[in-house]
Fold Arp2/3 complex 41 kDa subunit.
Amino acid sequence: LALSLGNNDVRIYQKTAGKWNLTTTWSDHLSRVLAIDWAPTTNRIVSASADYNAYVWTCEEGKWKPQLVELQRTSRAVCCAKWSPKENKFAVGSSDKNIAICYYEEDQRFWAAEMVKKKPKSTVTCIDWHPNNQLVAVGNCDYRCRIYSAYIDTVDSKLETSSWGKISGAGELLHEFQTESGWIHDVAFSPSGESLAWVSHNSIISVVTASNTSRITMEMTSYLPFRCIIFISENTLVTGGHEFSPLIYKYDEQNGTIQYVRKLVQEANTNRQSVKQIVPYETEGNTISKISSADLFGQIVIWKV
């Protein structure tokens, strides 16, 4: 488990005999760490910080070694970072409106960054990858969610087909979706990549499908704004926010509706503050059966869905 406690440290914990033990602490960042993502197959970690930098950490002979990412055009905090499904690229977004598709340059032996060509108009708050490894969705403070091409010719063997549109060079804008008001807190593709969902500061859940990009299905909830969202199946969403417990919603594409299903409840080990992040924990086939949530008190909870 990799985490940061709101400072410049990244901590690695390992579970032994049912107890989590701190094994490693990194302090290479000069300011608060804002994003961490661990690639499970390649066993690499990307960390991003308010010091304008991102590092890729590789475990060699039991020791973690950092390598600075060349984010030459970034002059503000790096707010989000996420590995691609094949773990050969990652994307980062910053508060100076930059979005970078990062990849390892084998000849030069460093992590390079390809910037998007049409920058958004405000801070990049969240990123998610399409399952085909060649599209990214980003959320911004300008009330918009966008889909960009993330194809890198030196990394991707061939151009994949996509129902969202023709994929070209890295950074090409394919779609732009606007909410009524409220900046975007989180964005997520469905398991097939055919649907895209996001939550915004106006307490609305929005979903759009590749088959009809002109229609955005919205659900105005009675809750305070959600801060995170994931798909646990093709039509089932889990959101987290100020309710201390994740909430499940069902998306019906045919009728254009998003319906509340239930709140996750368990007697012990619950969040004690607003939920900031939800990630998959365990899967059964194509469906996520367990999730983990992290709150502002540093409590991490595993939920059966």
About this structure: The radius of gyration is 19 Å. The mean pLDDT is 92.
